[in-house]
Design brief:
2 domains; 5% strand; 10 helices; two-stranded antiparallel ribbon; Lysozyme; mainly alpha; two-stranded antiparallel sheet
Length: 295
């Protein structure tokens, strides 16, 4: 009897395996991925983009795809823009630089205090050597390349000089990446007058296209599949200002005396580069601290 049941069990197992292997597998499903739609007309800083010119559409297509589907980076840009654009926008307007140049800061740094392999630093990526030319202090205890307001003003000075030289905001943007001399030399060598007609190194060749794509995606994120609510975004910091006109030997002690701590002080003032702050006679600095005092 035991052998009989064992035989029946074996037959059932074999039949089950046969039926399972014979039945069709459910079809694989994938999320739908589409190519971003490029608008029929585009502009940058009031200048129309010549979509009909050779290579323009394909170059734009690449940047639209990258900024639409590189989700983690674009989501962070959207979150940070909510905090920093309200600070950057009025400074650009004050200097007469088109609002679209806030997207240049996104390209340069992702709106974060990064350092490039070459040593360019801050939101606007100034080099240590050139920073003083644009009224940015770089000393033992202070590096204003990391001061968002002051470095934005410095970038405005650079861009205005570039626009004065080239008479074109797209060429001014390109010069921010490769320098005025580089742009000027390429224009002369190639006998053209427009950014769109220039043959450039790979980085500068896509620079302005990146600005345009970021402008479109960040200004209309819902059209490109990004559904962020106001609570998802980073709010501007709520701060108070303390003017300091004498040297601070220990920033940790100073912060605690102000009802804060070193973490908050350094986060809100990343241009403070040491544990102390040297203040020259007759000088002063505005330090930001949280508007609420620690208990």
């Amino acid at each position: 009897m035991q052998k009989f049941f064992l035989s029946i069990f074996t037959i059932l197992v074999v039949a089950f395996i046969f039926l399972a292997s014979a039945s069709p597998s459910p079809p694989l499903t994938h999320s739908i991925v589409i190519s971003p739609v490029i608008p029929t007309s585009l502009s940058l800083a009031g200048e129309e983009v010549p979509l009909e010119s050779f290579g323009v559409i394909e170059a734009l297509d690449k940047e639209f795809i990258i900024n639409t589907y590189r989700h983690s980076s674009t989501i962070l840009y959207l979150k940070r823009a909510a905090r920093w654009f309200p600070l950057i926008e009025p400074i650009l307007a004050e200097h007469g630089v088109p609002d679209d140049f806030k997207y240049l800061a996104v390209i340069e740094s992702g709106l974060s205090q990064v350092v490039s392999p070459a040593g360019a630093s801050g939101f606007w990526q100034f080099m240590k050597k050139t920073a003083p030319e644009y009224d940015l202090e770089v000393s033992t205890t202070v590096d204003e390349r990391y001061h968002v307001e002051k470095s934005t003003r410095a970038a405005c000075i650079y861009l205005l000089k570039s626009y004065e030289q080239f008479g074109s905001w797209s060429l001014a943007a390109a010069s921010y990446n490769m320098g005025r001399a580089g742009v000027s030399n390429r224009l002369k060598e190639q006998g053209v007058s427009s950014y769109w007609d220039l043959h450039l190194n790979a980085e500068t060749a896509r620079y302005v296209y990146r600005m345009i794509a970021l402008k479109e995606v960040l200004s209309r994120p819902g059209d490109y599949g990004f559904k962020l609510t106001p609570s998802d975004l980073y709010s501007p910091h709520d701060t108070r200002v303390i003017n300091v006109s004498s040297t601070i030997s220990d920033l940790s002690v100073f912060a605690l005396e102000q009802g804060s701590n070193l973490h908050e002080l350094k986060s809100l003032n990343p241009w403070l580069r040491k544990s102390s702050l040297t203040v020259a006679a007759g000088s002063s600095y505005d330090l930001l601290l949280p508007n609420t005092v620690m208990e």
